[in-house]
Structures are given as structure tokens and as C-alpha cells.
Design goal:
Elements: H1 6-11, H2 14-20, H3 29-34, H4 43-51, E1 54-58, H5 63-68, E2 75-81, E3 87-88, H6 90-103, E4 108-110, E5 116-121, H7 123-135, E6 152-153, H8 160-176, H9 183-189, H10 192-196, E7 216-219, E8 233-240, E9 243-251, E10 270-276, H11 280-294, H12 305-312, H13 314-325, E11 345-348, E12 353-358, E13 364-365, H14 373-383, E14 387-390, E15 396-402, H15 406-415, H16 426-429, E16 431-433, H17 451-464, E17 474-477, E18 491-497, E19 500-505, E20 516-522, H18 524-541, H19 548-554
Parallel strand pairs: 6-7, 7-8, 16-17, 17-18
Antiparallel strand pairs: 1-2, 2-5, 3-14, 4-5, 4-13, 8-9, 9-10, 11-12, 12-15, 14-15, 18-19, 19-20
Helix pairs in contact: 6-7, 6-14, 8-11, 11-13, 14-15, 17-18
Bound molecules: siroheme and iron/sulfur cluster.
Catalytic activity: hydrogen sulfide + 3 NADP(+) + 3 H2O = sulfite + 3 NADPH + 4 H(+)
Keywords: 4Fe-4S, Amino-acid biosynthesis, Cysteine biosynthesis, Heme, Iron, Iron-sulfur, Metal-binding, NADP, Oxidoreductase
Cofactor: [4Fe-4S] cluster; siroheme
């Protein structure tokens, strides 16, 4: 339960004690920001700043050199901007672009949850960065921390009407579950009006918030590009005659684990029932409350909803939920997911509008000697009057382009050579890597900086095998936290140490099955040697339409994973 006696609190994790003493997420953040003697925050504030969307990091490439020079680490901050459902306006894009070039590393990082991150913000620039983000009518509160995070929703421009309805629920869920404390406005926006009407109540979360992060996704079948089953809570849209009637509810997904600790594992959510759309917020709120009351507050490695459900059972969970709702979820309705990737290039939507999906390698928007991606997108934003849609595969959709504006966008895509990537293989276009080095403090191996060169080598094998057009889902992460959803890759890599990865095979093409460990702790040479025969055999022996993930199970390379608890067995 969330209220804790001081005896209880002693048993709980350190983060629980920090939350308890934080006065609704205020802590000593103001003092930390004003301390000129260090580029860092006080340690307890580094936990609280996450709830405000801010991670303290240091440049890991510089760590050794700074240590040698007896300097403190090169502290800097990552700021995560919430973009519910991934939709923002061109003027918001221009603002984020400007802020990135003013106060951060001049790059925007699109994330696997349709948010965007700015890296390299120095402590002295944090306040203006956050204030300017808010001035653009975006925010960072609850982008991280033990609360509900950015709510994702597949952008599905080719099903615009249904998507619009589902997007509306995405927005409402995001607002409904946002923290109510006025700490954010007081600290970052100097909002005196808010300070005088200080808000200290958290009607949904209570003063200890949740035991751990909480994630919600909404999906519009047949697309599962949000990987709905990787979320604590999922709402799969059920429609009749293209109008939304309600949602199938899924609960208990999460992908993180710790190497060598088999009681931590990735788990896919169970579909537990159907709710009419009018009840969506109530269902979400009660599930959040169950997790608030029953989630593990002692061991943070065991604190996600997936463990609450596995420990007590799905039937207990359904009973508890129905009890709290005062009515029961219906039986789940039939639905079919067909894919979890993005559709590149132009797609026609409704009302004479068009949408262009652009491949962004690993979500990194930056100008390089070879490609002025950031500049090109800025120029597009200046003339675009539709929207931008961030996908959960780290790509970008230039959305709602009118037919007469299409040639203008085409000309800019051409000028900045942004569409060149469409000539890449199906493996290339379906690969994702998490951030990892140099900013992520938890990285054990390279990911974003390494995947492109590995892909160039794998592409040679892919072309030899004649698999250029075969979409194969490949995911790489620099550690087992799974930020690029590596346990859902038909080919998954999880970093173990510099240059060494575990290789997993056999996830489902539309996000319906976890993969399984195939080889442990291997280097690049071994990766290529291991994958080459499997890919060639797939090319020669697959049945029409057979997916790589299914093939490697059928041919015995790995066993099928049926539940999270099976993952390590
Ligand atoms: Fe993540 C922690 C980056 C999506 C599971 N994640 C981190 C941190 C903040 C590292 C840290 O705690 O110090 C990473 C910051 C790196 C950096 O330098 O920017 C980080 N996670 C990311 C992003 C940016 C990866 C990307 O390449 O796009 C994604 C941001 C999403 C967003 O906008 O909110 C991101 N993280 C995910 C996902 C995928 C998803 O949600 O669909 C997962 C797996 C699903 C899940 O939550 O189980 C994920 N991140 C984690 C975990 C493991 C959580 C667990 O339950 O075990 C951690 C570590 C933690 O929380 O202790 C983590
Ligand atoms: Fe960092 Fe690990 Fe997440 Fe990659 S998977 S961003 S290395 S926490």
C-alpha cells in the first residue's frame, strides 16, 4: 500500500525514501540548480529530476580523461520531451530544433516511444531549456520517473479517421494520468501564480507515486508499430464500420531484465478483456491504482506491473480490477495485427491529404558531412502546414500534406537527399538501436553508434542470399534494459561488454512473441559467422510469406518463448 509508516519506509528502496521526503517532487532541486560549485545535482535530486523529464548524465567518452585530470565527470543532462501519440506541429518542431541548437548538442533524438530527447544540456542551461520547451506548448513532466510516461499511439495516417479518434484517447489518457504537483511549474517556469496556489495533491498516485515507471500504448490494428504488448497497459482499438467502439485491454508487458538474474525477464502483456471506449480512463486509472497499491516498493528490479501480475496471477488481477471498477470487462474482441514496422514513402490519407514516412536511422536527427538531415527537416517545417508524427520505430512522418503542397515537400526531400535511404534493404529499414554510449549511464556496449556498420556487413549477406526486400526486424540495445525493444527483434542483440553481444532469435513479426537466446557473448566476427548460414537457409527453405522469426523456431535454431517466465529456460 502506498501510505507507509516510518518502519515500512526503512524497508523500502532508497528511491521510495527520496520520494517520501521530496515534498511532491520538489526535493532540493532549486538549491541544486543554484549551486555553482558543481555541474551536477545533489544525488537525491537526480532521482527527482527524472519525474521532471531530466536525466543527469556525463559524457562517457571523456570519463577516463577527466579522471586523469582530476576533474569531476563532464556532467550534462538529457531532457525528454513528451509528445503524446507522437504528433506535433511544424512550429513546435522549429522550436525544438532551435532549442537543440541553442542549449544542447545540436541534434534531436526521436525515441522508441514517440518522444524526443535533447542531450548535452549543461546545468546552467537547464531552466531556459525547459522554459522554452513549455513556451512551445510542449512539456517534459512525467517523461521519465515512477509515473505514467509518454502515451504512445500508432500514427496510422492511412486510417486517418479511426486514428483521430484513438489519438483523442491517447491525449486524454496522457492528461488524466499526469502528476498534479505544481513543483514542475515552480521550479522550471518560476510561475508565481502557480506558486501562490501550490498544488500538493496527487489524487491518483499519492505522495509516493508508483513503485516504478508505467507505460501505456494504444494500437490501431492491423498495425502494431507501438509494440503494444511491451507496455504495462495497452488499449487495442476495436472498430465497427471504421468507428471506434472500444478497446481490448492488455496488461503486464515490460522488457527490462538484468544479465545473470533469471528472476528478471521480459514479459508480454496478457489481453484481459474488452472495455467500451467511454470507460477507457476509468480502466486506466484503476490499473494504475492496483499497481500503486500492490507493486513491489522494496526491490526496484521487481517493481513493474509484470511482476505484480506474475506473482499474484492474471485471474487475481482481473478480479481485483473488476472489483474496483464496479463492473466487469467483457471478453476480448477478435483483432489481427499484421506488422509492427513503418510504411515508408508517400501514403494517401483522407481529405485529400498525404503523409510521407521518412527513415531516420536510430532516430538521430543531426547534420553530418554526408547529409543535412536536421537542416532539411527545418526547411520542410518552415513550409509545411500539416503535422509531424514521430513513430515508435524512431522514424518521422511528414503528416497531412495537401495535394498541392506535395511537390514542395518532394523538392525539399530531394534537395537534402532525405529519401535516399529508401534504397536500403528490408533488414536495414527495420533495424533499431537504443542510444547507449556516450550518454547512457547504463550502457555496457555500443548500440546506436555501432549498428550502422554492422548493418553494412549484414547487408552483404542479405544481398548474397537475395533477401533485399524481406523485412526482418532487428533490434539492438547496449544493455538488457531493452530500450529499442531488443527482446522483440526477430534478430535481437543485447550488449554484454564492449564489442560483445548476446544474440537472440525468433521474436514474432508483429510483436506477438519474445525472442530466445541463441549465442552468448559474441563479437562481430562471430555474429556474422552465426547469422550467415541461418539467413541463407531462410532464403532457400522458407515458405511463401513465412517470417524469419517463425522460420528459426520451425527449423529448431531456438525454442518458441510462450511466456516471460520461459525466456531464460
Ligand atoms: Fe529506456 C532507462 C533510453 C525506451 C526500458 N532508457 C533508460 C535511460 C534513461 C538510462 C538511465 O536510466 O540512465 C536511457 C537514456 C539514454 C540516453 O542517453 O538517452 C533510456 N529508453 C530510452 C530511449 C531514448 C531509447 C531509444 O533509443 O529511443 C527510449 C525513450 C522512450 C521514451 O520516449 O519514453 C527508451 N526503455 C524504452 C523501452 C521501449 C518502450 O518503452 O517501448 C524500454 C523497454 C520497455 C519497458 O519499459 O520495459 C525501456 N529504459 C528501460 C529500462 C528497464 C526498465 C525495467 O523495467 O527493467 C531502463 C532502466 C531503468 O528503468 O532502471 C531504461
Ligand atoms: Fe541505455 Fe540500456 Fe537503454 Fe540502451 S538499453 S539506452 S544502453 S539503458
Amino acid at each position: 500500500m502506498t501510505d507507509a509508516s516510518s518502519e515500512d519506509l526503512k524497508k523500502r528502496s532508497e528511491v521510495e525514501r527520496i520520494k517520501d521526503a521530496s515534498d511532491y517532487l520538489r526535493g532540493t532541486l532549486v538549491q541544486s540548480l543554484n549551486n555553482p560549485l558543481t555541474g551536477a545535482l545533489a544525488e537525491s535530486d537526480t532521482q527527482l529530476s527524472k519525474f521532471h523529464g531530466i536525466y543527469q548524465q556525463d559524457d562517457r567518452d571523456l570519463r577516463d580523461e577527466r579522471r586523469r585530470q582530476k576533474l569531476e565527470p563532464h556532467y550534462q543532462f538529457m531532457v525528454r520531451i513528451r509528445v503524446p501519440g507522437g504528433i506535433c506541429t511544424p512550429s513546435q518542431w522549429l522550436e525544438v530544433d532551435r532549442i537543440a541548437r541553442s542549449w544542447c548538442n545540436p541534434a534531436i533524438r526521436l525515441t522508441t516511444r514517440q518522444a524526443c530527447q535533447l542531450h548535452g544540456v549543461l546545468k546552467r542551461n537547464l531552466k531556459k531549456t525547459i522554459a522554452e520547451i513549455n513556451a512551445a506548448l510542449l512539456d517534459t513532466i512525467a517523461a521519465c520517473g515512477d509515473v505514467n510516461r509518454n502515451v504512445t499511439c500508432n500514427p496510422n495516417p492511412y486510417q486517418s479517421r479511426l486514428h483521430e479518434e484513438v489519438y483523442e484517447y491517447t491525449r486524454r489518457l496522457s492528461e488524466h494520468l499526469a502528476p498534479r504537483t505544481s513543483a514542475y511549474h515552480e521550479i522550471w517556469l518560476d510561475n508565481e501564480l502557480v506558486a501562490s496556489s501550490r498544488q500538493d495533491e496527487e489524487p491518483i498516485y499519492g505522495k509516493h507515486y508508483l513503485p516504478r515507471k508505467f507505460k501505456i500504448a494504444l494500437a490501431v490494428p492491423p498495425s502494431n508499430d507501438v509494440d503494444i504488448f511491451a507496455n504495462d497497459l495497452g488499449f487495442t482499438a476495436i472498430a465497427e464500420n471504421e468507428r471506434l467502439t472500444g478497446f481490448n485491454v492488455s496488461a503486464g508487458g515490460g522488457l527490462g531484465m538484468t544479465h545473470g538474474e533469471e528472476n528478471t525477464y521480459p514479459r508480454l502483456a496478457d489481453v484481459i478483456g474488452y472495455c467500451p471506449k467511454s470507460k477507457t480512463l476509468q480502466v486506466a486509472e484503476e490499473i494504475v491504482r492496483i499497481q500503486r497499491d500492490y507493486g513491489d516498493r522494496i526491490n526496484r528490479k521487481h517493481a513493474r506491473l509484470k511482476y505484480t501480475i506474475d506473482d499474484r496471477g492474471v485471474e487475481w488481477f482481473k478480479y481485483e480490477l473488476n472489483n474496483r471498477l464496479g463492473w466487469s470487462l467483457d471478453a476480448p474482441r477478435p483483432f489481427i495485427f499484421a506488422h509492427s514496422g513503418d510504411r515508408y514513402g508517400w501514403v494517401e490519407g483522407t481529405n485529400d491529404t498525404w503523409h510521407y514516412t521518412l527513415f531516420i536511422q536510430n532516430g538521430r536527427i543531426v547534420d553530418t558531412a554526408n547529409c543535412l538531415l536536421m537542416t532539411g527537416l527545418r526547411e520542410i517545417a518552415k513550409v509545411h502546414n500539416g503535422d509531424f508524427r514521430l513513430t515508435a520505430n524512431q522514424n518521422l512522418i511528414i503528416g497531412r500534406v495537401s495535394a498541392n503542397r506535395k511537390p514542395v515537400i518532394d523538392a525539399l526531400l530531394d534537395k537534402y537527399q532525405l529519401a535516399n535511404t529508401l534504397r536500403k534493404t528490408g533488414l536495414y529499414l527495420n533495424a533499431m538501436a537504443c542510444v547507449a554510449f556516450p550518454t547512457c549511464g547504463l550502457a555496457m556496449a555500443e548500440s546506436e553508434r555501432y549498428l550502422p556498420s554492422l548493418l553494412d556487413k549484414l547487408d552483404i549477406i542479405i544481398k548474397e542470399a537475395g533477401l533485399e526486400n524481406e523485412p526482418i526486424l532487428m533490434r539492438m540495445t547496449g544493455c538488457p534494459n531493452g530500450c529499442a525493444r531488443s527482446p522483440l527483434g526477430e534478430i535481437g542483440f543485447i550488449g554484454k561488454a564492449p564489442g560483445k553481444y548476446n544474440l537472440y532469435l525468433g521474436a514474432g513479426f508483429h510483436g506477438q512473441r519474445l525472442n530466445k537466446l541463441y549465442r552468448e557473448n559474441i563479437n562481430e566476427e562471430q555474429i556474422l559467422a552465426e547469422l550467415s548460414p541461418v539467413l541463407h537457409r531462410y532464403a532457400n527453405e522458407r515458405k511463401p510469406g513465412e517470417r524469419f522469426g517463425d522460420f528459426v523456431i520451425k527449423t529448431g535454431y531456438v525454442k518458441e518463448v510462450l511466456t516471460g517466465r520461459d525466456f531464460h529456460s
